[in-house]
Amino acid sequence: MISMAFFLVLFSGITHAVWNLFTKRSLNKYVFLWSIHIVGTLALLPYFIIELLQVELHAETLGYMAISALFQGSYFIFLSKSYSYGDLSQTYPIMRGTGVMLVTLLSVVLFGDSLTLVGWIGFCCIIVGLFIISGIVNRHANQGKMTHSISIFYAIVVGMCVAGYTLMDKLIVQQLSPLSTLELSNINYVIVAFFMVIRAGRTQIIREWQQNWKMILIGCICSPASYFMFLMAMKLAPLASIAPIREIGTVVGTILGILVLKEKQGVRRIIMSAVITCGIISIAIWG
């Protein structure tokens, strides 16, 4: 079961990095994100309605769902803003690193999960590597400090939102199936995005689909598949152990940003990616 959880989270991280690359390359990020979530929302809606009719939700679960919706709506808004200001290979590690740091620490406190000494060392390697990649410790290498600071701020807020809805979904998935929990996320994204897309206008929607329809179709698969695999893994293993493993996507995202988007500081970020990988392996095997 633990091995299955490991592979689910591993592929979850990789597919997450892919659709974030597509988001960074999109013309209008609100339109793109709405487009890749609306398909999954419509597809899962019948299943979601049927399950809700069969399950008597506890009052606590309804509260968790409301809090998760707040975090997910904020995540959607700030994710778009973050990619509008910063590089993928810089903002992606920050948002993922912040999320993993908070999820792991809070899951130990709230859920009684635990890490071994080697696991905590691996965890520290991941955090150090992520923030060195982000450029926070190399401020002189960043041009346009105002823009850099804004992108860092938005990325940190995204990470906090990731931690918030992940912890809430850990509780929700105890009563609802992973598919229904995923559909809750999709519905939240679509509702928040709807107002942004209306403001963007029909012209930008058509333009986005004309130029990026292939990325949208792939994103329709990668985005829901990424979080569904993670939700499935949460049923099989402690959250503190599997959350850091998902950050292999950070390494993939960094490499994609350097190779595909031609972003700078490639050598330093790739070296730190190796440090992150060592941390992930430490947690997965001995953590």
Describe the structure.
The chain is an all-alpha fold and 287 residues long. The protein has one domain (2-286). The chain is 84% helix and 0% strand. The chain has eleven helices and no strands. It has helices at 2-25, 29-54, 59-85, 88-111, 117-134, 145-172, 178-200, 202-234, 239-242, 248-259, 266-286.
How many helices?
11
Which sheet architecture does the biggest sheet show? none
Mean pLDDT: 84
Low-confidence stretches: none
Helix proportion: over 70%
Separation, N- and C-terminal Cα atoms? 16 Å
Strand content: under 5%
Helix and strand sequence: HHHHHHHHHHH
The backbone outline, from C-alpha atoms, is: globular
Number of domains: 1
How many strand segments? 0
Radius of gyration: 18 Å
Structural class: mainly alpha
